Amino acid sequence: MSKSIKKKLIKRINNRKMRRTLIFGTYITALTITLFVLGSCVSNPDSSGLEYMPDMYRAPSIEAYVDYGEIRGRKVEKYKTTLSALTPPNNTIPYYGKGDSLMVKLMLPYARKANILFRESHGLYGYDFSLADEYTLAAADNNPFLLTSKNSEEILSKGKVLYTAMCQHCHGEKGDGNGPMVLSKAFVGVPAYADRATLSDGQMFYSIYYGKGMMGAHNSLLSKKEIWTLVHYIRQFQNPDYGKFDKNGNPKVLAKTDSTATKTK
Ligand code: HEC
Predict the structure, then answer these.
(1) pLDDT digits (tens, 9 = 90+) for 81-90
(2) Ligand 1 atom closest to residue 169's alpha carbon, by position in its atom list
(3) pTM of the full predicted structure?
């Protein structure tokens, strides 16, 4: 084979390769354009079109302030009334349900104010304070959730869950003030509930809500219903018959609605 023929042959092969590459390239371009055009074939005007990797545009996790009741035409009725945001805007009060129900009333702010001294002693900044001895006045407040032979077991078992999670490490499983925090000597001054049997329900609530002495405020951690539930639970430590009922459905121990503080006033 002469040199010139060899050269021509190589050129032809090269051309053929190039042609193939060109044809392939044209196909790819055509396909890409078709996909782009197809991508716009979505009737929803709020949609950016077909998404090949939706997770890249939207986090699959639940996000605050997104109304999951309706997304892209897909409606989920039950989510329309469900809050997805956990932190409400400042100074707003959640208020829903039937106007006169106990739970709706409990959504309103606690009527008793923290004493002005609590600002320093318990770090309660940004609160409305009072100069009066509201702790003493709180003795007049009654637990709005009355125990009955029907609901007693449920309320006390809810109280146990809350107590175990929030209070037991200081106050002890038996309410004797010997929680692991105290036994390890990390914390001192926790009383046995039995020694405070004369405390009224309202004062217990006040102390759990705003804190007392070495105990911190729990109002940002517990709802008012939960605190009243705990008040019921703590009473068992003072009287094992608390929350128990006789055959006629009468409570064996009456709630501490009468208060020594208001009696002396
Ligand atoms: C960090 C430890 C600690 C934790 C947690 C704690 N307490 Fe206390 N608690 C104390 C101390 C200390 C006192 C004594 C306060 C005083 O009288 O000076 C106390 C007192 C009390 C009193 C008596 C209040 C009064 O007016 O005399 C009640 C009721 C009470 N706690 C309930 C609770 C409940 C319910 C929880 C859980 C939500 C809880 N505590 C969590 C340490 C704690």
Answers:
(1) 776 656 677 7
(2) 5
(3) 0.71
